[in-house]
Amino acid sequence: MHTGMIGLGRMGLNMAKRLLRGGHQLAAVNRTPAKTEQLAAEEGAQAAYSLAQLVDALEKPRILWMMLPAGQLVDEHLAELLRLADPGDIIVDGGNTYYKDDIRRAEQAAEAGLHYLDAGTSGGVWGLEVGYCLMVGGPGQAFEQAEPILASLAPEDGYMHCGPSGAGHFVKMVHNGIEYGLMQAYAEGFGLIEASEYSGALDYSALSKLWNQGSVIRSWLLELAERAFAEDPKLEAIQGFVEDSGEGRWTVQQAVETGVSAPVLTLSLMERFRSRQDNAFSDRMLAALRHQFGGHAVKKS
Q1: Known active-site residue 188
Q2: pLDDT single digits (tens) 177-201
Q3: CB neighbour class for 11 (10 Å; exposed up to 12, middle 13-18, buried from 19)
Q4: 141-191 pLDDT, tens per residue?
Q5: Which one of 172, 194, 226, 247 is the catalytic residue?
Q6: By CB atoms within 10 Å of each CB, which of 10, 169, 176, 196 scores lowest?
Q7: How confident is the model at residue 83 (pLDDT cuts 50, 70, 90)?
Q8: What are the phi and psi torsion angles at 89 (to 5°)?
Q9: Which residue pairs from 151-155 have beta carbons closer than 8 angstroms and sit at least 24 positions apart in sequence?
Q10: In the annotation, is 100 catalytic?
């Protein structure tokens, strides 16, 4: 299927590149045309300068993949796509959308004869190289039609049909809540070491590498910690000001709504709020990890 990528931010641009390098035909549109033109010149994408041009550039049935900030912008683009697309086309929201919004949008798409998939996407700025973990919700038939695209974006065994509309972004929401907790645990552990009498003798980059050699706490996050400490051994170049993307809040909200105890995930979100009031070492590590895996901006000291 011919694919249109809508939004060429940190994730969308690299996803478009991965699809093009996988041999797919792809057209792209972005709010500012410079990235679109760069993608066309360097990777062979077909440049479009409006949603109408994007849809016209693609053969039916189409996959129209949105990589946009959650909220009103997605609704605005979806409303226009519902007017422009043809029955049988598939609209995918690969951004960090609240899963309850997917249920509403899927109903709107179905009324227009279109399919809607919600694709929770994890992989950050490293996805171009290693692939994206994709958690997909929506009609099974649409998922099967989109599988060639999903298989090119993901590493082996890296995508899954999670259930009906909303399921993909629901699972991704919980994934991000867990991510908050894991990052907080690493940050607190290194914070304890930094406050100890042994901090001066330890190379934190080497320690991160050590813990990835057979330890029960080994992970990709520790690989990123190793990298961050190699670049800045005491993380002195950034402030311990840690943003949150919204999905951590939604995870805590879900815990409240369903009466499920999630104290670690909740406290990790609270710690991000607290980080904006001082500049602790553990917060600088959280900010550094977030920058490493997702390319998120950090505040410089």
Answers
A1: no
A2: 999 999 999 999 999 999 999 999 9
A3: buried
A4: 999 999 999 999 999 999 999 999 999 999 999 999 999 999 999 999 999
A5: 172
A6: 196
A7: very high
A8: -65, 155
A9: 152/18, 152/19, 152/22, 152/23, 152/24, 153/15, 153/18, 153/19, 153/127, 155/130, 155/131
A10: no
